[in-house]
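Tokens as discussed.
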């Protein structure tokens, strides 16, 4: 069986500092992250909004220090961050 602990440790190291968020692949949305259960009791960074990622691997998350802009964040992410919904723009 393949030892996944080095991959998990590498992913944790990339997102270990406070203020580090994630971009999925070449996307534009900045996601808040936290550590979550993965395979064989390893913990790796996961998106707080719980958005699914096809072919999920910790390597698809790119670290960024860009801010999570709540006005552009989907409702699921705002709920995960415990931020009230933004009022509708008229």
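Sequence:
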């Amino acid at each position: 069986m393949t030892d996944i602990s080095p991959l998990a440790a590498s992913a944790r190291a990339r997102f270990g500092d406070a203020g580090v968020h994630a971009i999925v692949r070449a996307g534009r949305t900045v996601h808040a992250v936290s550590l979550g259960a993965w395979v064989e009791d390893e913990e790796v960074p996961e998106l707080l909004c719980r958005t699914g990622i096809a072919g999920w691997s910790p390597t698809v998350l790119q670290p960024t220090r860009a801010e999570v802009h709540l006005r552009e964040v989907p409702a699921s992410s705002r709920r995960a961050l415990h931020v009230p919904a933004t009022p509708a723009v008229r």
